[in-house]
Amino acid sequence: MKTILCYGDSNTWGYVPGKFDPATSYVERYPRNVRWTGRLQALLGENYYVIEEGLNGRTTNLNSPLPPDRNGKTYLLPCLYSHAPLDLVVIMLGGNDLKNFYYRSTEEIANGLKELTQLIQSTKYGSNMQSPPKILLIGYPELSSEIYGRVINDENLFEGAVAKSKEFDVYYSKLAEQSDCYYFNAAPHVKLSEIDGVHLDEEGHRVLADLLANKIREILD
Known about the structure:
By secondary structure, this protein is an alpha/beta fold. The chain has one domain: 3-Layer(aba) Sandwich (Rossmann fold), CATH 3.40.50.1110. Helix content is 37%, strand content 18%. It is built from 8 helices and 7 strands, in the order βαββαβαβαβαααβα. The chain has helices at 10-13, 36-44, 72-83, 106-121, 148-151, 161-165, 168-179, 202-220, and strands at residues 2-8, 15-21, 26-29, 48-54, 88-92, 134-139, 182-185. The model has no long low-confidence stretch (mean pLDDT 96).
């Protein structure tokens, strides 16, 4: 059985666009059979084991002021070890790094992602527990708008983020090539919801799962 770890943010966790209540902090989550990770498991079948590691607000390597414990770098090594041995780590991160209080360029976000690839490649948590697992970097989908901040009463939260998100492919594809990682650019195929501009809707989850199933078979078969 091939083991795949999917390491991401709210778009891996399954955040439902438009279903957040700032007054109560209620967040609605798609069920597993709707989330792209659950769909991926169904498509790949019993010879694969797909592990979800999605977290709302997760960054590449930045500490979040609120909520805490969202730094993707600090949690990565224990996460890898707890699920080892791993054949493949799929990383889809970068969207939260676009928030205006981080003051990051797209190149700086890619550099944060680079630190994660280096950590993974420094381990022996691959299928034979003597070498690192393979890595598949996902070119993050482009934000469809910057309205999410207004939805959660922070009007400028993603100010300028749409333009930066259009640069993800340039830097992520270069990173994948330089770091000897596999790469799939989701942006041309997967659209984020117009409801809040930053989260996948059901169709987005379906499309992403379909495309990744084919890509993963190419890598692992």
